[in-house]
Specification:
The protein has no helices and 27 strands. It has 202 residues and is mainly beta. 43% of the residues are buried.
């Protein structure tokens, strides 16, 4: 692994980045590649930024940042979190943007924003795990959000909002760890919501 009392910056201008060990930094951690990115656990005293111009971003392990987490896969690239993998932003936001996005667990002190030009799905083998928790949770997909077999589980903190939009597909959402507070849910096809507690349209 790599440990730094300051920043960690890894850039591959003509290919991909494959990190086999852990990365730990007192400052920000940035990984950028013209191809794809594959990484394991990352801990940062500030922000974590992963950007793949034209490949996939695969994360096996947890990303822990004091500030913000920003993960982007350009073009037809996808973001794939390992089952049970946790992205935690202790005092900031989490932003994910890609073609298809397979979620583990996202936990932000502030906003969670997930934007896909394809579909958003749940990669967790344990269906009780929360896919996205934040003061606000916004999910936008041209394809579907969740499936009829495994919905995307959300938790809005402090009675704030959920906004979910599936332009061309279905939206399957659940909230098994608390009340589902909805601001707006829209889908071209099926919009299915279920909660172990209550569903409030706010």
């Amino acid at each position: 692994g790599v440990r730094s009392g300051s920043d960690i910056v890894l850039k591959a201008f003509g290919g991909s980045v494959n990190v086999q060990g852990t990365l730990t930094a007192a400052g920000p951690v940035e990984i950028a590649a013209t191809g794809g990115i594959s990484t394991h656990a990352i801990t940062s005293g500030l922000d974590i930024t992963l950007g793949a111009d034209s490949g996939n971003v695969a994360v096996v392990g947890d990303l822990n940042a004091v500030g913000r987490i920003d993960v982007t896969a350009g073009g037809t690239g996808s973001i794939e979190m390992g089952s049970g993998s946790l992205f935690k932003a202790a005092s900031g936001d989490i932003y994910l943007s890609a073609n298809n996005i397979g979620l583990g667990q996202l936990d932000a002190a502030r906003a969670v924003v997930v934007s896909a030009s394809g579909a958003i799905t749940d990669n967790n083998t344990d269906a009780t795990l929360v896919n996205a928790a934040g003061r606000s949770v916004t999910m936008t997909a041209l394809g579907s959000i969740g499936t009829s077999v495994q919905s995307v589980d959300v938790l809005t903190k402090e009675n704030t909002r959920l906004v979910a939009t599936s332009r061309d597909g279905d939206a399957y959402l659940s909230s098994n760890s608390g009340i589902m507070h909805i601001s707006q849910v829209s889908a071209n096809g099926m919009a299915a919501l279920n909660s172990a507690y209550s569903i409030l349209d706010e």
